[in-house]
Amino acid sequence: ITMAFGVNDVDNHHLTETQFKTYYGDSLDWLHAKWSLADIYISRAGWSTTPESTAIMNDMDNNWIPFLISSRSYCHLGPDERICLGGGDNYASRTTDGTHPNAAGYDAWAQAWKTTLGY
To answer: Residues 29, 55, 85, 117: is their CA dihedral positive or negative?
Structure first.
């Protein structure tokens, strides 16, 4: 199972750390209860429209998601959009608008997932 919590979720909801950990943790636990043999891979989102949301996303990617994974053996880190789609040029070459992948971005994202999943 792959999961992503993206910029739209952060920009539109401005979740606190407690809310994020509760809601996302509940989602992970529900998925695990439903499909107990499946591993869950969580990607990390990259770009945001506001400094406030960017700060929240950085906390989410660097701290909150690893915290949730640390207590769930069936969860693993997935690819990081900041690296994959950021492409070293601030999302210029791998997105259409700084957020949404273009063909090169989708190819890079697919490769990142293949690498994460061991293909």
So the answer is: negative
